[in-house]
């Protein structure tokens, strides 16, 4: 059953349908459908939590991968134009679409709510400190119904029962997976691990 949230807070200057059209215009069908599943998963997970702004949950989920299909040059230009940390130039789309994505979201969608933008910034690597909103987006992206990895059902059950336990689970498994394939680890990923797994 799809849940439709009516936008009333002017976080995005338009309706949910208008936001959906803008997001759809920048993404492949496959990724657009992922985004809709993340929204529904995040709204569903939100039922376990009080004081969560469902409008922010919907908006953050719908825009979390907004910049994922931009070219490397688009990201490089944005990093330079906005005078972002020059170390970002050493990274790639996997990191950029989360960390630099909010610059496209502000400029093109006129969404400026920093809690929403932080949820996008942290959706790939997590962060040492995350609001409930950021945790919901981080986990919904990991657990949406088409995600299929060994243990996904256990991860879903755990997360519905205890959101922080889900964050710990994802942080540990993602870092383990990246290390096993000898990927470069983005420093924030290590800080997330230290804060959530090692020191928890
Ligand atoms: P998606 O955008 O819905 O596909 O999901 P994510 O934004 O969560 O992940 C994008 C990719 O980034 C995944 O393949 C992750 O494994 C990868 N990733 C997450 N953290 C790091 C990191 O620290 N370093 C690198 N190299 N990749 C990472
Ligand atoms: Fe992503
Ligand atoms: Fe995603």
UniProtKB/TrEMBL annotation:
Organism: Candidatus Gallilactobacillus intestinavium
Enzyme class: hydrolase
Enzyme Commission designation: 3.6.1.41
One Pfam family this sequence matches: HD
Domain of life: Bacteria
Catalytically driven reaction(s): P(1),P(4)-bis(5'-adenosyl) tetraphosphate + H2O = 2 ADP + 2 H(+)
Record's keyword annotation contains Iron: yes
Domain HD, residue spans: 31-146
Protein keywords: Hydrolase, Iron, Metal-binding, Nucleotide-binding
GO molecular function, one term: bis(5'-nucleosyl)-tetraphosphatase (symmetrical) activity
The protein's name: bis(5'-nucleosyl)-tetraphosphatase (symmetrical)
């Amino acid at each position: 059953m799809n849940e439709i949230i009516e936008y009333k807070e002017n976080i995005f200057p338009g309706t949910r349908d208008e936001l959906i059209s803008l997001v759809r215009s920048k993404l492949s069908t496959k990724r657009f459908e992922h985004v809709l599943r993340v929204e529904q998963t995040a709204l569903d997970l939100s039922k376990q939590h009080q004081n969560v702004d469902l409008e922010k949950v919907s908006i953050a989920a719908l825009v979390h991968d907004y910049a994922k299909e931009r070219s490397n040059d688009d990201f490089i230009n944005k990093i330079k134009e906005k005078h972002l940390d020059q170390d970002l130039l050493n990274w790639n789309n996997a990191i950029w679409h989360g960390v630099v994505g909010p610059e496209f979201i502000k400029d093109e969608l006129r969404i400026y709510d920093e809690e929403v933008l932080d949820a996008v910034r942290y959706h790939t690597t997590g962060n040492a400190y995350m609001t409930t909103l950021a945790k919901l987006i981080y986990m919904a992206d990991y657990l949406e119904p088409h995600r299929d990895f060994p243990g996904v059902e256990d991860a879903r059950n755990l997360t519905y029962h205890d959101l922080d336990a889900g964050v710990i689970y994802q942080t540990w498994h993602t870092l383990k997976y990246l290390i096993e394939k000898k990927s470069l680890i983005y420093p924030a990923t290590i800080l997330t691990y230290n804060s959530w797994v090692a020191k928890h």
